[in-house]
Amino acid sequence: MTVEPLAAPRPAGRFGAFYPYALLSLCMLFWAGNWVIGRALRDSMPPVAMTFWRWTVAALVLAPFALPRLAGKAAILRRAWPLLLALAVTGGSIYQVAVYFGLRHTETVNAVLLNAASPLTIVLAAWLVDGEKITLRQLWGMVISLAGLMIVLSRGDPAQLLGLRFSIGDLVILAVMPLWAFYTVMLRRRPMEVDNISLIFLVGVFGAATLAPAYLFESLYIQAPPLAWSTVAAPLYTGCFASAAAYWCWNRGAELVGPNRAGFTTYLMPAFTTVLAVLLLGEEVHPFHIVGIVTILFGVWLSTSGRK
Q1: Per-residue DSSP letters for 208-226?
Q2: Above 80 in pLDDT, residue 103?
């Protein structure tokens, strides 16, 4: 099946230049909360259950808005369902299950560090699929953001990085990064008649449907999630914010600025994770936090500013 790339117009003026990066930054904030929750509930909420209920909640929340938009588009959906299913499986079900599994077997610091490989895989995928090349300015921005990330993770002491140990969880998170790259690059090939809200709804439906057998098996033979306030609140947050809202922001931002520039904003996630840890967990702010976050922000600005 061949689907024409989606060319999404952006708003005009200065707001138009800022708008996609504001969406991508908000997406990183929502996803930072998702990683914190995934690590916090690693013992009570198994990975398939977390992902299944996350997409089920997202689909239910978006259904009243998406179903009227999809009315009369059955022929389009029949032609595009292989691409929509591939997006749901790569960017929705398999990728998220792997992340939650990884967070059960590794520390958040390691997971965030490995997530920094995401822009590299997106750049490679964009080059292989679309022939999109990285500029020298973007390369320098990537290097600077990585340096800022290292400052935060090492707590200002480079010797701390030598103490990091990689587990099966680390390897799983690293292994599924190409799936997220595929999802990001293929977004622009969805049918133009399927808008962003409808796309996320379909990702939720396809994602929950493909995960249902695995969820049943996990609940019967491995671990069933207990009925508690935390296990109810977590899918509500991940479904409403980390899925419906965040994926809308990511999809729209990536359409407007391209997969490469969208990928570079991933470096904002460790900065937001640090801020959330300070605000929600009462952790202290140190000079290395400020230096690292400022360095990350400068690298992201360098990578995403300038002309294409």
Answers
A1: HHHHHHHHHHHHHHT-PPP
A2: yes
